[in-house]
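Lytic murein transglycosylase B: structure, please.
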Amino acid sequence: MKTPSLPCLALAALLLSANAARADDTAAPRPLPLGKGSAAGNFIAEMADKHHFSRRQLRRLFQQVAIQPSILERIAKPAEAKPWHAYRKIFLTEARIQNGLSFWREHANVLAMVQDRYGVPPEIVVGILGVETGYGQNTGGFRVIDALSTLAFDYPKRADFFRKELEEFLLLCREEAANPQDPKGSYAGAMGLPQFMPSSFRHFATDFDGDSRRDIWRNPNDAIASVANYFTEHGWRRDETSAVPVTVEGDGARQLLDNDLKPHQNLAQLQAAGVKIPAGLAPDTNVKLLALEQPDGYDYWLGMHNFYVITRYNHSPLYAMAVLELGQAIKARL
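Here you go.
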């Protein structure tokens, strides 16, 4: 999965002008500093003391790690900074819908079994896999250890988070008997069809086939079940709606917009502010008012509990809405 709050995006093309023939040394991969007192050196010592890794083997491993400036460039430009109408165009494409339709048909039996077991409908799982990797077409080309090391030791803004994920990654590789130099993923270190971060893999990845392997890279069945398990563990409620569109009269409702993604607003409060509440919602339902920017205004939605659960995968309402709309578009084609 994708890191909470960090998107897992398609790799962007880096356009070089004709005048940029000379390589910029700052853009080239560079060795990870391992000297005494370095952040990486301290990390190695901690892993040895805390988890009984061999210091010599870890030093040998990290000598093969490269800091990637291109990763720092990409993480500084998240797609979630775009307005909704631009963000939506990235994922709600005819090609992605058609590929999602093919994926759903091919794995219909597994999706049905997973829905029965976990309560997560196929359109949610297919929407996630479509947004994250185009159903496995683009799982990322960075070595995970390079991505996590770059962000853990050369990105102070979120160094603590990525240092923890690097710790989880080394534990994951030891548990799964994998070579840490092999797995590839996104620029943020997210892995496989569902783009799980290492901590998510360790806690939520599922062996659906019973072959004693949790293969989210090559086994769509494991990936499907792992996404559903992730949502179940984060409180998904079976058979509940995730979000509903609403109309708004006047400007009063804009005062209720905030950054809290949890459903914390009551219907009476919203109605008094000019929100037309759809029929059928229980009066005591808590919701989150969403305003999605369009070229000529805003689309308004009420996010329910399950919408909040989707944002546990990526802490962005734009991401959650893209998942919902893509899944529904594919479902409508069946």
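Notes: Residues 1-25 have pLDDT under 50 and may be disordered.
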